[in-house]
Amino acid sequence: MSKALDGVRVLDFTHVQSGPSCTQLLAWFGADVIKVERPGVGDATRAQLRDIPGVDSLYFTMLNSNKRSVTLNTKDPKGKEVLEKLIRECDVMVENFAPGALDRMGFSWERIQELNPKMVMASVKGFGPGQYEDCKVYENVAQCTGGAASTTGFADGPPTVSGAQIGDSGTGLHLALGVVTALYQAKATGKGQKVLAPMQDAVLNLCRVKLRDQQRLERTGEMKEYPQYAKGEEFGDAVPRAGNASGGGQPGWILKCKGWENDPNAYIYFITQAAVWEPICKVIGKEEWATDPGYATLEARLPKLESIFATIEEWTKTKTKFEAMDILNKYNIPCGPVLSMKEIANDPSLRESGTIVEVDHPERGKYLTVGNPIKLSASPTEVGPSPLLGEHTDEVLSALLGYSAEDIEAMRAEKVI
Ligand code: CAO
C-alpha cells in the first residue's frame, strides 16, 4: 500500500530526541529520511544509557526507526560539497542544533534557499526570538520555561517535571505538523519556507489550560476546582500546583486501590463527572448524596471535594484498579487505572494496534518500541529498525548523488564520510 509521504525526501540533521522524534514520524508516514551523522561518532544518543556494550542504545533505536544513516563531516570542504548536493535533492531539512551551529557550518537559511528554493527548513530551538534565543536547551529546561514545572506537583512540594517528554517529543510533534503544512503550501507556491518550533512555545501550548487558569485567577481570586479552595487556603498571584486535580471542569483525583500498600501503582484516576453523580453515589454506597442538597450539585460539592474523594477512596480500596475500572465503566463513570510501564509493555490492545511493537535489530536482537500513535487508514506504518551508523552512506552517495566507488573510497580514506 502507498504511504502518505511517498516521494518526500528528508535531510535529517537532527540529534538527541526533539528533532529525531519529528523525523521518525515523517519516516513512518512514508518519507525517505536520510539522517546525516558525524563519522565515527554519530548521534550522541547512540552511546547514551547503553544496556548492551557496543550496541546502539534503546534511546537511539526508539527514536530513529525507518531512517537511513549517512556519515558526513559537514565541516570539511568536501563534506560541505556533499551536503550541498543533498540539500538540492531533498524537499525537507530538519535540524535541532544549538542556535547558530548551521550558520557557523556555512549553511544559513539564505544559502539553503540559493541551493534549493523549494526547501522546507524545519528547526527546533529551545526558545524563539528574544532574550534567551542563543541558549541551549534540554527537555526539563523546556518543561520549566514553558509553564509545566510551576504547575505540576503538589502545593506543598517543589516545582516538578513530568515523565512525559513534552519538551522533546512534544516539540517534535509540533514540528512535524509544521513540516507537512509547509509542504502543502509549497504545492501552491512552489516555494519552501522556514518552520520553527521552539520548545518553550510547544510546552506552553500543551499547558494552555494553565494560562486559562492564570486569567481566571486574576479575575476572580480563586479557582473552585483546585484543592486549595476545598482546603480554604489562600490563592497567590500565580497558578498554583494542583496535585492530581483534573485540569477541566469535572473534578478528579488519583485514589488508592486494593494492594496500594505494596504496589506503587495500585491507584485509579476517578472523575466525579456531574452527569454520572447519581451512579457514583450508588456504586460507593452513598445513595443519599444523590438527593442531598449539600451534595447533589457540582457547586455544593466543590468545597467538599477532599472529603468526597476520601469517601470514594474507601470504596476503591476494596477493589483492584482493574475491578474498579470494570465496575465504574458499567455506569459510564470516567476513570482509568494507573498503569505501570510493565503493564503497558504487555497490554494486548496496544500490541494489537501497533502502538507497542517488537522490532528486530541486527545487533541488539528484539526490542520493544512505541510505534506510530497516529493511525492513517490508507497509510499504515510498519516500524523497522534504526540504521547502524553510516549504514547507507555508499548507497545514498552513489545512487542519489552520483558519486563513483572511487570518489567514495577517497572520501572514506580522508575521513570525510
Ligand atoms: N559534521 C561536523 N560537525 C557536526 C556534524 C557533522 N555531521 N553534526 C554536528 N556537528 C557540529 C555542529 O556544527 C556543532 O559545531 P559548533 O559548536 O562548532 O557550531 C557541534 O557539532 C555541536 O552541536 P550542538 O551544539 O548542537 O550539540 P551540543 O551537544 O553541544 O548541544 C543541544 C546539544 C541539544 C543542547 C543543542 O543542540 C540544542 O540546544 N539544540 C536545540 C534545542 C534542542 O533540540 N534540544 C533538545 C535536545 S533533546 O533533549
Descriptive overview:
Helix content is 37%, strand content 13%. The protein is built from 18 helices and eleven strands. The radius of gyration is 26 Å and the shape is elongated. Bound molecules: oxidized coenzyme A. Oxidized coenzyme A is lined by residues 16-19, 36-38, 72-75, 96-98, 101, 104-105, 124-126, 136-139, 168. Oxidized coenzyme A (CAO) binds next to helix 1, strand 2, helix 4 and strand 5.
Helix-strand category: alpha/beta
Topology pattern, helix = H, strand = E: EHEHEHEHHEHHEHHHEEHHHHEHHEEHH
Poorly predicted parts? none
In percent, how much strand structure appears in the residues?
5-15%
Number of helices: 18
What is the distance, rounded to the nearest whole angstrom, between the alpha carbons of the first and last residues? 34 Å
Percentage of residues in helical conformation: 25-40%
Question: What is the global morphology?
Answer: elongated
In the sheet with the most strands, the strands line up as 3-2-1-4-5-6
| Largest sheet report | 6 strands, parallel
Features:
417 residues, alpha/beta, three-stranded antiparallel sheet, 11 strands, 37% helix
Describe the SSE topology.
Layout: E1 9-13, H1 18-28, E2 32-37, H2 58-61, E3 68-71, H3 77-89, E4 92-95, H4 101-105, H5 109-115, E5 120-125, H6 139-145, H7 169-189, E6 194-198, H8 199-206, H9 208-220, H10 227-230, E7 252-256, E8 267-271, H11 277-283, H12 298-301, H13 305-316, H14 321-330, E9 335-337, H15 341-345, H16 348-353, E10 356-361, E11 365-370, H17 393-400, H18 405-413
Parallel strand pairs: 1-2, 1-4, 2-3, 4-5, 5-6
Antiparallel strand pairs: 7-8, 8-9, 10-11
Bound molecules: oxidized coenzyme A.
